Every structure is written in structure tokens, then in C-alpha cells.
Amino acid sequence: MTIITTTDRSFQLLKGETLLDGLERTGHEVEYQCRSGYCGVCRLTLLAGEVSYDDPPLAYLGQSEILPCCCKVNGPIRIECRAGRQGELPVDTDQYSLDL
Ligand code: FES
Hints:
Blueprint: E1 2-5, E2 10-13, H1 19-25, E3 44-48, E4 51-52, E5 65-66, E6 72-73, E7 77-80
The structure holds FE2/S2 (inorganic) cluster.
């Protein structure tokens, strides 16, 4: 189970879902264009946790920046991202241990 904690809420990333898909499903506002690591428009700041990439993305990434459209989330993470609309209800994270 992968718990994503954003500025406003926490949610569980579903199997087969990209981080960008999960953020959209839960009402977060993330800009995007290519959805495949080329443009860098979806760039977010990773505050805690780890992500990886199957292939290095072509978009420039600064330190602590990630591309939610194509990264693989390796365990619980905390990111800078705000929810802008009503999405799926957030997970009650009191029941999870987020050693971040
Ligand atoms: S949407 Fe283009 S790199 Fe993520």
C-alpha cells in the first residue's frame, strides 16, 4: 500500500495508477502536457520518500523535483501539491505509520 501525502490530504495510490493519475483522482490540480516525461510541466517537489524512473526522463529536473506522470513511487511519499477540487475522500492516515 502506497500512501501519498500532499499539502492538503493523504490518499492511497491504486495498483497500476501513476502518481499523476492518483493526484487527479483525488482532486489535486497538476498541470500536464505529454504525460510521459518529455515536457516537465507536471514537475512537483518531493518533500520526503523516494521515487524512481524506468528510463531517465528527458525533462530537466532540479534537486527534489519529480515528474508524477512517469515516476514510480517507492513507498510512502510527501509532496508539495494542493487539492483544488472535490476528489475521492482522503484516507484516514491515523491508521498508517508514515515514517517520513
Ligand atoms: S506531463 Fe510532461 S513530463 Fe509530465
